[in-house]
Fold this protein.
Amino acid sequence: MRELWTMTQYDLRQRIRDKSLIIFSIIVPLALMFVLDLVLGDLTNPQLQPTTVAASVPAGDQLGAALVDVVRSLDGVEGMDITVRDAAADEVHDLTRDGRVQIGLIVPEGFSTALQQGKATDVTVVSGEGTGIEQSIVTSVVESTVNRFSAGALAAEAGAQSGLAPAELAAIGQEVATAESTITLAQGTASNEQLSPTGALVAGQAGLFLLFTVGFGVTALVAEREQGTLARLKSMPMPSWTIVTAKALVSFILGVVATAILLTLGGRLFNVNFGSPVAVGVLIVAAVVAATSLMFVIVRVARTAEQANIAQSIIALVLGIAGGAFFTITASGWVGTVMDLNPVSAFIRGLGITSGGGGLGDIGTPLLILLGFTVVVLVIARLIPDRGAAQ
Amino acid sequence: MRAVLTITGAELRRFLRDRSNIFFVFIFPLLLVVVIGAQFGSSATTGRVSIAGEDGPLRQAIVTELEASKSTVAFGDWDDIVEEVSRGRTTVGLRFPDGSNAAFAAGQPVELEMLPSSQSASIAVQQIVRAAVDKVELDRAQVAALVTRGVTTPAAESAIAAARTQVTAPTVHVEDVDELAKEFSGLGQFDLGASSMVLLFTFLSSLAGSATLIQARRQGVIARALAAPVSNTQVLLGQAGGRFTIALFQAVYIAVATALLFGVDWGNLWLTALVLVAFSAVSAGAAMVLGSLIDNEGAASGVGVGLGLVMAGLGGGMVPLELFSDTMRTVSKLTPHAWAYEAFAEIQRHDGTLVDILPQLGVLTAMAAVALAVGAWLLRRSLARAM
């Protein structure tokens, strides 16, 4: 046990003296968090903005006025802040283009008559500056309302074709246009397991660079093998497992310390609360163990320290990007399931749960994924031939 | 000149023989172009609605309406959908309880469960779901209005189908006057990702490759070259030429590969080539500065990767410059990436001519001249340093 601790301490000292450790583990991820937060801002999760709609309706057009009333009634729904102002048809485009209003609505001349007679008519929605959410909602509401207005005329025409009396046709039109809704949409609430955009950035960069940090410990085995010091260590009167365990311990300690620093500093700097420290701590330990297990595969595949570095960078970047270190990759079905098995995405997912108020009992799934990943990777590392030792 | 070319050629050969470059230079940039194109490209939809519960006419009708809007519709178990919504992978979940289809057919009240995610964008998707439900209800109300007046259901349905051919449905059309939307409207799915990746990887590979310059210094390759009957200037020019050729190789590879594989439209090839040459020269100069200032290969590749990613982030290599705030847009001008990005935007989107991109080319050339001169001076000085 004493030998194990001596070797771990020695390696830790060596690694800490290596400038690239602090660059890769702390400085680069923090710099990236800072820059990505600056440039991405709220782009990944836009918030609703106060919106003004410039509406142009021909004088005396009842259905046109009703259409604008429906748009006006959106104000206050689901936190929307919508103001409708009247405008002449020829100034709607300018107002929207100049950014004085965000949406323009032009109801054409003869709108009501065209709808009642089943003739062609075209409403224009002018989409200006904004997040796109408000534009999408207003467009959908306008389409839906215009559909409702025209459905009566269509039913009346069908009634006429079915041989119904002309007196009944008007009633049909009215009945359809004012039909009561029989379908209600009961809105449920799902628990929020998502990090804020900035939180996802901090967690993602911490997860990605963890895969680089743990490499500094275990891949030192390959360097020792190259330099011939591994053979000398093996000749010492101690069990050979202590050598490997010492390297793994170095990776583990570096990983836990670096990730804890990144999450703490990142949390403070970017005002992100990851939730229960105990649950976050357990997640960090599980993620570091999973990441360290990967290094054992690299040690067996790589013949030289250079190869180990390359293999490690490839695995880190592929797992990091697929796991959502830069932006969330949405996938469903089997692709989504495979992506979920990624340690970086399990780590981010776990932090999402803890930041939403989840405790130890709620992070079972991400923890199981990290544990399962570790077991599978260690079995693979055991089974694949050791190319370095075969030299 | 021959000596310069020989050194340049040797540097390029070293670069191509490094097997790690197979992944980082040839495969990785294209993978990212695909991922970014798939996530943010023109095929992106307005949102994802996941459906669970009893199948039947009501569910099918609503799905048809949802698909007619630009939503992606998926199906699954309700428990899975609840989890997807919690994680933000589904924008809105919609469940059809048992008996809902039959109840709707019989004109009885039906309650569907709608589960929105916490993102603001879900409000738009909820409205799309409401509009789809409303449309299905209207269709049913039309049939019902005729049936209550003695028309049989099949006859009412066929009369409505016939009426649809005679009545011209009103239309709603959307005109986008937003400058931002117009700016990106002509771009192909992979166009933006490809130009960003050229900038990101050309600079990143150059900076990360500065470690080989340190290696050459450590192993005395440069000092020995200086001992040969060649001038200092020739050796320094050869080193600069090597860095430049490697950067240009990376840039041209991504440009050609994305054009051939993903049909990326780079616009005028000559102008694009000019921008690539100027940007590669800046990258080469930056690599020389880094490779001369730092004496440790590990630290140089760490700083190289870090600086490469940070500068790409600041200069539009990760997020389009048009989405930056005014302050960030000003800050971005400090990076060569932003100038090259603007030049590409001018060529790709506005059919820009040489005159249009002269300011950007001028700044890039000035940056390249300064970086290469400082790099050569630092390299010369570094040779006198013990390593």
Remarks:
- The two ends of chain B are 30 Å apart (CA to CA).
